[in-house]
Design goal:
This protein has about 350 residues and is of the alpha+beta class. The protein has ten helices and five strands.
């Protein structure tokens, strides 16, 4: 599209050709070089080049040489072919606006217009050319509008790319969190049951066989959970987590006090409280060395406590970090507290 407008340099070529001398030949060569540089300059226009990031502005190290070279060539063409060479002024003004940041581009365009118009008045044999002055003004305004549109499009693309990046990061974090919650809990229960089955082999073979059957079932369930997670179709229920907690704590010889009903918990909080129980009981099984574990369930909170060695003072860890993120979605918070002895995990949502 930029090349179409080079048709207006034809008057300069005609004037140079009409001279039939060396200056005319040099003038033609200079005009062709001017046109080639003008077209090449559009490679640097802000936007996206193949394999490069978005660029909001042309680097000054490229913009200044481009505009300066065109200005020098424009003056040289005028010296070679006369006033017909002033046709290059429009292109110099356009490059100034496209290549230089505001307001420098407009200053360059205004300077080009002033010099060109003054030359028509002051140089002997030249004529005042208001049409060229009007052309420079119109071209400058048009290109300024194009430049503004390009800048806005770049901003939109940057926001879109940032949103895409954040969405991808959130998806990765969610997958990491979900896999940790599922695999961490399942492997912890499997490990506890495997230890129990190993101890029972010399004491109660039949019970050991039952524990091994549970191991097989738990392994299959864990594999199924992972597959559903990767497919984005994982479900968790509050009653199911309470039942899992009772089974896992029993296998680890930890006495448990668990709620018998979940009817008082609002529907929108059931999934969060289910994850809370899973995370809390998993930590009890893994780290606490506790003999007792208590889960207290209220309509607006859930609490998992034990009498073990206690947890980290700040309640850090991937699981607790993921639980905090889940709680924030529904306006809740996670509170961790070291007891003497033991540890308490509490998730509460203001009603």
């Amino acid at each position: 599209m930029a090349g179409i407008w080079l048709i207006y340099l034809s008057s300069t070529i005609e004037a140079a050709w009409a001279r039939h001398d060396i200056r005319g030949g040099i003038g033609i060569a200079a005009t062709i070089l001017f046109a080639l540089i003008y077209i090449s300059a559009f490679v640097f226009i802000p936007g996206r080049l193949p394999g490069t990031p978005l660029q909001r502005h042309i680097p000054l190290k490229a913009a200044i040489p481009l505009v300066s070279t065109q200005a020098v060539l424009g003056v040289a063409i005028c010296l070679l072919v006369g006033q017909a060479g002033t046709a290059t002024a429009v292109y110099i003004a356009v490059l100034g606006v496209m290549c230089l940041r505001a307001p420098y581009g407009l200053v360059v365009a205004a300077a080009v217009a002033a010099v060109t118009y003054s030359s028509g008045i002051l140089i002997p044999g030249w004529n005042e050319d208001r049409g060229l002055l009007f052309g420079i003004a119109v071209a400058t305004l048009a290109v300024w509008g194009i430049r503004t549109a390009i800048a806005r499009n770049i901003e939109v693309m940057e926001v879109r790319e940032e949103n895409t990046r954040l969405a991808a990061a959130e998806a990765r974090n969610k997958l990491t969190r979900d896999l940790h919650d599922i695999i961490g809990h399942s492997l912890t229960v499997i490990t506890v049951k495997a230890e129990l089955a190993n101890r029972l082999l010399d004491v109660d073979v039949e019970r050991a066989r039952n524990e091994l059957k549970d191991l097989e079932r738990l392994s299959r369930d864990a594999l199924s959970d992972v597959r559903r997670t990767l497919a984005g179709h994982r479900e968790i229920t509050l009653s199911g987590e309470i039942a899992r907690a009772r089974s896992a704590l029993s296998a680890a010889n930890i006495r448990s006090r668990l709620p018998n009903t979940t009817d008082d918990v609002p529907t929108e909080l059931r999934e969060l409280f289910a994850w809370s129980i899973r995370e809390g009981v998993t930590n009890v099984l893994r780290h606490s060395g506790a003999r007792n574990c208590t889960v207290v369930l209220h309509p607006d909170s859930v609490e998992v406590s034990d009498d073990g060695q206690g947890g980290t003072p700040d309640g850090s860890g991937i699981g607790l970090t993921g639980l905090r993120e889940r709680a924030q979605i529904v306006g809740g918070r996670v509170v961790t507290q070291s007891l003497d002895p033991g540890f308490r995990l509490r998730v509460e949502v203001a009603q």
